Amino acid sequence: MRTIWVSKSGGGDFTSVQAAIDSIPEGAAEETVLFIESGVYKEKLRIPKPDLRLYGVGEVRLVYDDYATKPGSDGVPMGTFASCSTYITGDNIRVENIIFENTAGESAKVGQAVALYVDADKAVFKNCSFLAAQDTLYLAKPKEEKQNRSGRNYFEHCRIAGDIDFIFGSATAYFEECEIISLNVQKEVNGYITAAATPADKEAGFVFHRCRLVSDAAANSVYLGRPWRDYARTVFLDCRMGGHIRREGWDDWGKPSVNHTVHYAEYGNDGPGADTDVRVSWSKQLQEHEAGRFTLEAVFGGDTDWTR
């Protein structure tokens, strides 16, 4: 196992996270561990190396400030994908105690501004934070736009903050005991937590288990999700939902045809936003035996050792 220390003060092997990543040989046979000492690292990071461990020592913030409407080098707005502060595309990666942030500003002013993009299999995040506004956490492009395996991602004891579609993409992702924070933009529709683009051949998209959905936004103003693609799959299990969650729960993004293809479901949730009496008719309230299809083991096909 190779160990690398990154320190802004100069006390480590590198002062830059990207320089440390770039130092790892292509095709390295051993696992690499990066210890990143406290500080704000303003770098637009690309992390393509597999078998990598990143550990924050103290408060570590990986930040950048690009946004979708910002002109690129060709004068054309860079778009959502290019706005990402950090890109992770290497499989078998584990990240702990790190804050990923896009500091571009409010969604009404800058549009989409992604804190982290992940297109990797067996990606684990524990005790991490993901902070932005619109499109905070991007979990792989849809299949038709870029070939991907819709990798497996696992989040545990993380904080994710944003307003519009701030957890989105085509991955199969499991969120365990995370805090999902909807920012207050002071509008009648204050936002959408998810925008899944689950491939049609996948049984599970985004699964939230024992998470807390919180906000200081007005009551009945935030949707649980809307479908970025027609087979979006999102499930909330045993979560605590604040009063900001809209009573109908889900939005079809003006595409009524998806009412027959999406799988939006809930089970065992509580709190003022969990009342299902007037949920949209095309969402589902699971029975106990149906909820069993969305345990961690079921979602990842029994292969869960990598999440520990």
From TrEMBL:
Catalysed reaction equations from the record: [(1->4)-alpha-D-galacturonosyl methyl ester](n) + n H2O = [(1->4)-alpha-D-galacturonosyl](n) + n methanol + n H(+)
Pfam family, one: Pectinesterase
Family the UniProt entry places it in: Belongs to the pectinesterase family.
Species per Swiss-Prot/TrEMBL record: Paenibacillus auburnensis
Upper taxonomic lineage: Bacteria, Bacillati, Bacillota, Bacilli, Bacillales
Active site: D165
Pathway of action: Glycan metabolism; pectin degradation; 2-dehydro-3-deoxy-D-gluconate from pectin: step 1/5
Domain Pectinesterase catalytic: residue ranges: 4-302
Hydrolase listed as a keyword: yes
Keywords, ordered alphabetically: Aspartyl esterase, Hydrolase
Protein name: Pectinesterase
